[in-house]
Amino acid sequence: MFDAMKQVLPAHRAHPRQFEDFKLVYPVLSRRSGGISIGLNMNPDRKCSFNCIYCQVDRSSMPVNAWFDLAVAENELRAMLDMVESGALGKLSQFREVPEELLQLKDVALSGDGEPTLLPGFAEAVEMVARVKPTGVKLLLITDAAGLDRAEVKRGLATMDAHDGEIWAKLDAGTEEYFKLIDRTSMPFARILKNLAECAKVHPIVIQSMFMKVYGHGPSAEEIGAYSDRLLEILAANGSIKQVQIGTVARAPMATINGRPAWHSVTALSDAELDAIRDCVRHRTCLPTESYYGGHGPENRG
Length: 302
Ligand code: SF4
Fold this sequence. Notes:
This protein is of the alpha/beta class. It has a single domain, classed as TIM Barrel (Alpha-Beta Barrel). The chain contains 8 helices and 12 strands.
């Protein structure tokens, strides 16, 4: 029996957001989902509220005429669902070596080259996916949490609740200073924390966190302690956290730091370093916490 948690296949490492002739929809063999995840690129314009130092989206040139067309997305999603259901996906070269049990569709993920909740008409896009996806297949939102307080987004989340929805929200720091270093946004850390806490009160969330070495140094023990405290604060405010996923950089970042490519200064933690963080967070919070190693981070597709 294939152990989906332990083994990493070449197809697990590949997360291209451009698939054949599709513009907005792409398939991913997802280790976290334990099967196929169909991604929707809600931000072909690459807009994001963050500018993470580990981001793998190339923003050195901005795309021309790149917008999210709901009708195109629906047609492509229907075509991709047909490919998975008919077995045509498994016959493609990149999936040919994948065991059959991992070619089952597990979720449709709202993700992309930026922050999905920035899409005008976010709620409408959620409604489309809820209508088209098979019942029982999860509807995931992979988000940086910056927009979770917007009315439009809350409408979309309510639709998700009625259609096997799950929110995977980013938290990369425990202190404002480290948050600014890693996620590089003008948004106050307090607003992100408030959004996470408010959201987790209504919808149980999965926290996704990326830790790495910056100029050779990983996060300090104090930072991981502060990060654990932020998780505990969400719980203390009656929030519900289903799981904490801790990962490190899996591929060379495309971001720039002081005009230089980020891969000069941003590198992966070792498996042992990641496990030490996981154990510390587990111990401090008693939350189910998993580590995802350098060969494959959590489903952070940004
Ligand atoms: S990693 Fe995700 S949240 Fe961060 S800048 Fe890239 S797309 Fe935005």
